[in-house]
Design goal:
By secondary structure, the chain is mainly alpha-helical. The chain is built from 14 helices and two strands; from the N terminus they run αααααβαααβαααααα. The chain folds into three domains: 60 residues, 434 Repressor (Amino-terminal Domain), CATH 1.10.260; 176 residues, no CATH class; 54 residues, no CATH class. InterPro entries: Cro/C1-type_HTH, Lambda_DNA-bd_dom_sf. Keywords: DNA-binding, Membrane, Transmembrane, Transmembrane helix.
Length: 322
């Protein structure tokens, strides 16, 4: 008996329709139909889920010569955790909070040199504050804002540790929750697309005031103001992108779709490891270059360049085989 026949037989023995099995397996009814007609073969992770769901051994499902149903003597998926409605809601709520906190931390990092830029320009034209005082106040403010951002990252990440088990496929939603998550994601889709579009457009257009000021040979005070405005606009754009992406990602994580599909998780881990040392290096380069040249109005170009490089390398890591 081939795998397709076994799936069909086990489903009927349990009294489930194709729709009911699809709901339990987190797949479409068409996928079940294809499995049962041998038009497609489920991947190994789905086979493991089928074995757990039907209470049979994986050997029985995979070996055509085993005709008699072989039930598992031990729970092959005893490490699976069932996610309740309350746990699901706690995760979605905390993930949204985590996204806002991370976005706030990133905003603080982006805005940290603004006061230093403005005070340095003011001191150069001899208004109210000396150059030494301007540098001191600006640097202290920058370090305080960056330190605050780091503290936010650490505290927020610590609060999410209880949900680490959702980073892998060893969990399943209780019956009926799959549809709820899909409905929530569908309801959020409009907000997600809108915020992502606004964030991207702001990142593209934020440089226009600075370019116009340069064309008309504006004063250093005006240029500094527009640099500060650019950083403020970028920080707002990043906030929108991070918060929207985090909420969308929380739904995908529960549904194990997108980057959270079992086959995609290895790629995501590789990108995460790369990001773990890449961005601290970029921060060090940015701060080092800025302090060395004292040209904060120009060194911000590190960030868009670094983002493009990161996107390119991430694509390579995602496309390459593990």
């Amino acid at each position: 008996m081939i795998l397709a026949d076994k799936i069909l037989s086990l489903r009927k023995n349990n009294g489930w329709s194709q729709e009911e099995l699809a709901e339990k397996m987190n797949v479409s009814r068409q996928s079940i139909s294809k499995w049962e007609s041998a038009a497609a073969i489920p991947d190994i992770n789905r086979i493991l889920e089928l074995a757990k769901l039907f209470g049979v051994t994986t050997d029985y499902l995979l070996k055509d010569d085993l005709e008699t149903t072989v039930y598992s003597d031990t729970d092959e998926t005893e490490n699976y955790i069932r996610v309740s409605l309350q746990e699901m809601n706690d995760f979605l709520r905390n993930k949204a909070i985590h996204g806002r906190q991370v976005a706030l931390g990133v905003m603080l990092c982006i805005l940290s040199p603004v006061l230093l830029i403005l005070l340095s320009t003011v001191s150069e034209v001899g208004v109210a504050v000396t150059e030494r005082a301007a540098s001191g106040i600006g640097i202290v403010t920058l370090l305080l804002m960056v330190s605050g951002a780091v503290a936010i990252f650490i505290i927020s990440s610590a609060k999410m540790k209880r949900f680490e088990y959702l980073q892998n496929s060893n969990f399943e939603l209780e019956y009926g929750l799959l549809g709820i998550v899909k409905e929530k994601r569908a309801a959020f889709e409009t907000t997600y697309v809108r915020n992502m579009a606004i964030g991207v457009v702001l990142c593209i257009l934020c440089v226009i005031p600075l370019v116009v000021a340069g064309i008309f040979e504006a004063s250093s005070m005006t240029l500094s103001f527009f640099v500060a405005l650019l950083l403020a606009i970028v920080s707002v754009a990043v906030y929108l992108l991070i918060t929207a992406g985090t909420i969308k990602g929380s739904y995908d994580q529960l549904l194990r779709e997108g980057e959270f599909e079992p086959k995609e998780q290895e790629h995501s881990k590789r990108v995460s490891k790369f990001a773990g040392f890449y961005w601290p290096i970029i921060v060090a380069v940015y701060l080092g270059w800025s302090f060395y040249t004292s040209n904060w109005g120009f060194t911000w170009v590190v960030w868009p360049i670094a983002a493009l490089i990161f996107a390119g390398i991430s694509s390579v890591l995602h496309a390459s085989k593990p």
